[in-house]
Task: structure prediction
Amino acid sequence: MTEALRDAIAESELSFKALERETGVLRQSLMKFAAGEQSLRLDAADKLAEFFGIEITRRKAK
Result:
């Protein structure tokens, strides 16, 4: 999930300010997360995943 979100942010043509406006996730948090300096809270990751259309699926137990 972390890698997918970092990739989506990097590939996005939006500025951190625009991402903050669109998702509600603070720009400083986005910048530190993108730089690998900190992680995101799950609620922030959920907002970004929804914005970028990233879905996760649960693996079936073996």
